[in-house]
Amino acid sequence: MAETPASDKPDVSERSEIHQQTLSEQESVVIRFSGDSGDGMQLTGDQFTNTSAILGNDVSTFPDFPAEIRAPVGTIPGLSGFQVNFSSNDIYTSGDEPQVLVAMNPAALAANLEDLQPGGVIIVNDDAFTRNNLRKAGYEGNPLDNPDALRGYEVHRVSLTTLTRVALQGVEDMTNQQKDLCKNGFALGLVFWLFDRPLDSTLNFYQKKFAKRPQVVEANTRALKAGYAYGETTESFSGRISVPSRTEVPPGTYRRITGNEAIVLGLVTAARKANKPLFYGSYPITPASPILEGLAALKHFDVRTFQAEDEIAAIGSVIGAAFGGALAATASSGPGIALKSEGIGLAVVLELPMVIVNVQRGGPSTGLPTKTEQADLLEMFFGRNGECPVPIVAAATSGDCFDMAIEACRIALRSMTPVYLVSDGYVANNSEPWQIPDVDAIPPIEIEHRTDPKGYQPYMRDPETLARPWVVPGTPGLEHRIGGLGKQDGSGNVSYDPIDNEHMIKTRAEKVARIADFIPELEVNGPEQGDLLVMGWGGTCGAIRSATELMQREGHSVASAHLRYLNPFPRNLGNVLGRYRQVLVPELNLGQLSLLLQAKFPIRVVPLNKVQGQPFKIREIVDKIRSILD
Fold it and tell me: 209 CB contacts (<8 Å, ≥6 apart)?
């Protein structure tokens, strides 16, 4: 069916605010696109997000896709989804429940219906509701024909496949199967119409993306325009929605950026600020692979990338590059970090500067490669043999990945140590508007390579940082060897003396502890003291901030703080924690930060834990705050 029959239209009294006027304004809207992994949902969501960002909306996205390259068609495990929250105000998450669901098949409807807001809009591809697809999704009958199954929602049965084929009649050299690939464009055009979005940005994208395939440009253009025209001519929709642009946006040049993209730019910027070539050695792994891909395209910035045969070779190459005088970095996820652990321990003993990016994913083992989690924190703290401390910094948002990549490099080069830069699947793939910084305003990273052989010893110490000298191999008179055996301080000679061993272990630990002297103190959002502090790290930032600000507007004595420096902790952390009666710590693990805080500080921590491969919803944190305060 091309539109909902009048008799099947929902009662207007059941509709949410979104449907009360023919043309209305809303502050923000959340849309979820869902279909098979071959239905182009990521591209569809990307284009809607880009257009909304160009119009001046704040945007936040949540791509959610299966781990398989070609997942089982028509099944719930094979679904690919993309959620976008776009607003006329500042937003910090991709939204809790969508107000609009675009479902390309029965599985998409079955998997996402319970998340949809009451009274929400459902746009379904009616052509996909075949007996076979219904069976795959677990339906005994067609829910679109059951008045009770979708009661309370505004349902639009649109024959996306059929209408796309009609729109593409006359396009040469395209089979029906190829034409069907354009049905996501028809759906996108319809949603553009529904939310008063222009087509220009997406049409330009088609021209550039398929410049060498004019028939593909024509097909996608026709499908997009046909979807928009369908919205204009059908009478099934009760109204259109306009989300105005933000009125208070700091002046500057903006682009949309993901966490992985921001890490790429941050590493390159740090190398330029340190006046060093960047060496990046890595083994492909989800969700960190886009960092390798992004850096490989930037060789003109003196970036050298090496795709290793395995994780052990990757960390070995980075150790060699750091010894050779380059700014060295690698990235992986939980399983790869485990394989790199012996090499990271060697880098700690060698005291060489490098950045190890951990884009966390669901585990353990292979786990959930495309889902998010924060369960590697204790692995990064303690996952090496012996006493082997490594500094850890964590990005709070996608844009923050740029700043923290530079900060990780700065710490590594200042203190001559490996540094973990922590992200997660949500931060890595989420996108948001990002103001392109003034590179000239970013402070330089000062580096001094010793060249004077007088009095030189490989492990002599800077009195402030305890860092050893960084000497480029081949410097006359400063030839030296490195290795993983126990060492004598100063000379670096192999030593099995018990006192030497303990001294070196304590010196390396003190070197890491002293990093707290030059990192920023922890800042609090909200009252400086009160009933409850909500403490988080990594990708929980947006949900925590949204939840605490909501509670503050209701008059509750609730504050939030977010740790971007995890090892060492900010020097004022104990003081901050002590100013609140209780501390709530939401984490996408079973309480790892909670464990560390309670081990170090005399406080009572209330954990809020989730390991479902999904980020926190704002309401989950709000509900927990209410239960504590009540």
Answer: none
Write out the E strands in 18-109. Answer: 23-25, 28-36, 58-64, 79-87, 100-103
CB-based contact 418:353 (threshold 8 Å) = yes
3-state secondary structure at position 124: strand
**Is beta strand 580-587 parallel, antiparallel or unpaired with respect to 565-567?**
unpaired
Neighbours of 34 (CB within 10 A): 25
Residue type (1 letter), 178: Q
Tokens of 617: 């919803």
> Quick one: tokens of 8?
């099947």
SS3 210: coil
Are the C-beta atoms of residues 34 and 104 closer than 8 Å to each other? yes
Q: How would DSSP label each residue in 242-276? A: E-PPPS---SS-EEEEEHHHHHHHHHHHHHHHTT-
Residue written as tokens 């026709």? 222
Which secondary-structure segment (H or E) carries 332? strand 327-332
How far apart CA 608 and CA 587 sit, in angstroms, is 6
> 524-629: same fold as 255-441?
yes
CATH superfamily entry for domain 6-242: Pyruvate-ferredoxin oxidoreductase, PFOR, domain III (3.40.920.10)
The one-character DSSP state at 143 is G
pLDDT tens digits for 284-319? 999 999 999 999 999 999 999 999 999 999 999 999
Q: Break the chain into its structural domains and give their ranges.
A: 6-242, 255-441, 524-629
Separation of CA 118 from chain center: 28
Mutual angle of helices 334-350 and 311-323, in 10-degree steps: 30
Spacing of C-alpha 360 from chain mean position: 10
CA-based nearest residue to 464, from 488, 481, 446: 446
Q: How far apart are CA 151 and CA 241, in angstroms?
A: 22
Q: Looking at the domain that runs over 255-441, which CATH code has it been given?
A: 3.40.50.970
Instruction: Please tell me the predicted confidence (pLDDT) of residue 68.
Output: 85
Yes or no: say if 411 and 391 are a contact pair by the CB < 8 Å rule: yes
Q: What is the pLDDT of residues 335-356, one digit of tens each?
A: 999 999 999 999 999 999 999 9
CA 236 to chain centre: 37
Report which DSSP code applies to 481.
Answer: -
Q: Which CATH class is domain 524-629?
A: alpha beta
CA distances from 413 to 17, 278, 542 (A): 54, 13, 30
Supply 222's token pair: 């026709």
Q: Residue 149, class by beta-carbon neighbours within 10 Å (0-12 exposed, 13-18 middle, 19+ buried)?
A: middle
Rounded to 10°, the helix 289-296/259-273 angle is 50
| Residues whose CB falls within 8 Å of the CB of residue 267, separated by 6 or more in sequence, listed in order | 278, 280, 295, 327, 329, 355, 405, 409
Q: What is the widest separation between alpha-carbon atoms in the chain? A: 92
The CA radius of gyration of the chain, in Å to the nearest whole number, is 27
| Separation CA 389–CA 381 (nearest Å) | 7
Residue 560, CA distances (Å) to 122, 218, 224, 439 in order? 36, 51, 44, 30
Spatial contact of 204 and 51, defined as CB atoms under 8 Å apart:
no
Query: Rounded to whole angstroms, how far apart are CA atoms 582 and 580?
Result: 5
| For residue 527, pLDDT beyond 70 | yes
